[in-house]
Here is the input.
Amino acid sequence: MLPALVAAAMVACAAPERAPAPPAPPAVAPQEQALRYEVEASEVRVLVFRDGPLKQLGHNHVIVSRSLAGHVDLRQPPGATTFELALPLDSLVVDEPGLRAEEGREFPGEIPAQDREGTRRNMLSPALLDAAGFPVLRMASAGLREAGGGWVASAVVSVRGTDQRVAVPATVRLEGDRLEVSGQFTVTHEALGLTPFTAAMGALRVRDDIVIKYRFAARRS
Here is the structure.
């Protein structure tokens, strides 16, 4: 997920003649070693969309968590870089005031508190995420590649006790001891081993595809 920071760590800016050289970023560890960065701040947004003949009776939803934890181990060569991340499902908040407006016209107005709580209850129920039985969603690296001028991690996502492989694009920035990673991608419920919520015999349901936006900052430990 993080070859960009490998490049940042290995290439120094050229200084004018006789000018003092800029401070060098931290060196990248060989494969058998690593520079570890611990997540210290984060936001994960999940955009969920209504579907079906009665979709006008439902709402699109913005689900957010700021409790992502874990670490990134920066290695050389870039493909050896690894990460392990965890998101506690009880940290998920549905339609936090203000976030719907930020996401634009597909998320009009605020949702009443009782409707928000009902959506959250359905989401965490045994029928979908089963947060009581599997309280943490985990993600670990399973490969790294350059693609289209950016970077893509092959990640194993553990949800509801099963592992699914997902491609996760990333933009990476490294400044001194601080690492910032962000990205956006679309994935289906099916790809995560989940069945979308339905009501009214399927006439009102959640669309299969969801959009995930994430960003986190990590500091070298």
Notes: Residues 1-26 have pLDDT under 50 and may be disordered. The helical segments are 3-10, 99-102, 113-124.
